[in-house]
Amino acid sequence: MTPAPPLSVVGIGADGWDGLPAASQRVLRAAEVLIGGARQLALLPGECAGERVPWPSPLRPAVPGLLAAHAGRRIAVLASGDPMFYGIGRTLGEVSGASLEVLPHPSSVSYACARLGWPVEETEVVTLVGRPAENLAGALYDGRRLLVLSAGAGTPSQVAGLLRDHGFGPTRMRILEQLGGDRERVAEGTAATWDRMPEADPLHVIALDCVREPGARRLALVPGLPDDAYEHDGQLTKRHVRAATLAALGPAPGELLWDVGGGSGSIAIEWLRAHRSCRAVSIERDAVRAERIGRNARSLGVPGLRVVTGPAPDALEGLPTPDAVFIGGGLTAPGLLDACWAALPPGGRIVANTVTLESEALLADRYRRHGGELVRLAVAHAVPVGGFTGWRQAMPVTQWAAVKPAGSEAGRCFT
């Protein structure tokens, strides 16, 4: 049986056919089927005689059927720039299962850094293509250089508004349009005055030199954000205890957290801020608080936080298996602690906090059964006492932290 030809994925830039290397041109000439966006297909000359098929929308669910319809033919998929950099190459690899032959073109990020004189390895990239603009908020730091992959002509105005809302109005914005093509152009302004700028070309990258306004709130990378960074009704793991809790949870790239009894969502939000690939689900029984968690997540740059409204342990059904579980409320709910422990795979972590004697007794029992660490966290703040200064003690927090040992029963599969 003749093996199926590999699926070719060819990167193309604003410079079109003339900017392609000979190997890419050969593949496109030989293709029997050419799949791509309408703009990319229009860049090909008549000598590329294959059948031209524009991508349908939505794209991802259509990929298997579209490839199956042309099975056995030489297919070349056109991609913008580097197919494996936030491009169609990843989708094809995940969805199609086909063998890929990837011929990249310089990415828009490579072009932009070349024009700006920025080292690529020191430039953070945030994509807003198919993603909420609030993702950018988590990358805003004074003096930081950012490249934003735009979703269209209206993105610069959206970015400028977000920058102003977060106290970064003085930030220098440069819009690099049609990079590598004959119509390459740069428009420049600041976030504070961007509304007076003309609309950008749809094909562009946004370069930001971040400048924080004097007095604007400064948010650090490490856990323990100021309490006033959160909207809350008092149900909030306070700053110093929160920092200790995240240290015990130990987030790592790609891991999933269950935040049970989310309150204001602070633990899940700071877990997500630890790394862009971290994932989290916040479970909160109160609908008003659940909505507040979503607002806090968007404000602090992690709009991908999933919020489940309902009482635990029932609300845990159907959730993907966690790498770590935090229980910040509802410890006395029947079966909650056991359900969370059972859901963890070997090596999974659990951390639970409480301020009540009743819940503390439950944690002491689990400490005897499963080991780990049982600690009491006490924080006092200096406050005026008449004309002097004294200490005001916050309620001490009892914390149990444990790792499920290897050889334990595998975590329950909730999917």
Element layout with pairings:
Layout: E1 7-12, H1 22-30, E2 33-36, H2 38-41, E3 51-54, H3 63-69, E4 75-80, H4 88-95, E5 100-103, H5 108-116, E6 124-127, E7 145-149, H6 155-165, E8 172-177, E9 185-190, E10 204-209, H7 239-249, E11 256-260, H8 266-274, E12 279-284, H9 287-299, E13 306-309, E14 324-327, H10 336-343, E15 349-354, H11 357-370, E16 373-377, E17 380-385, E18 388-393, E19 397-403
Parallel strand pairs: 1-4, 1-5, 2-3, 2-4, 6-7, 11-12, 11-14, 12-13, 14-15
Antiparallel strand pairs: 7-10, 8-9, 8-10, 15-19, 16-19, 17-18
DSSP E strands, number: 19
- SSE arrangement, N to C: EHEHEHEHEHEEHEEEHEHEHEEHEHEEEE
Distance between the termini: 38 Å
Tally of separate helices: 11
Q: Name the beta content range.
A: 15-25%
Main beta-sheet annotation: 7 strands, mixed
What structural category do the secondary elements indicate?
Answer: alpha/beta
Average pLDDT taken over every residue: 94
Can you tell me the residue ranges where pLDDT is under 50 for at least 5 consecutive residues?
none
Short description:
With 415 residues, this protein is of the alpha/beta class. It has 11 helices and 19 strands.
What does it look like?
This protein has helices spanning 22-30, 38-41, 63-69, 88-95, 108-116, 155-165, 239-249, 266-274, 287-299, 336-343, 357-370, and strands at residues 7-12, 33-36, 51-54, 75-80, 100-103, 124-127, 145-149, 172-177, 185-190, 204-209, 256-260, 279-284, 306-309, 324-327, 349-354, 373-377, 380-385, 388-393, 397-403. It is of the alpha/beta class. The two termini are 38 Å apart. The mean pLDDT is 94.
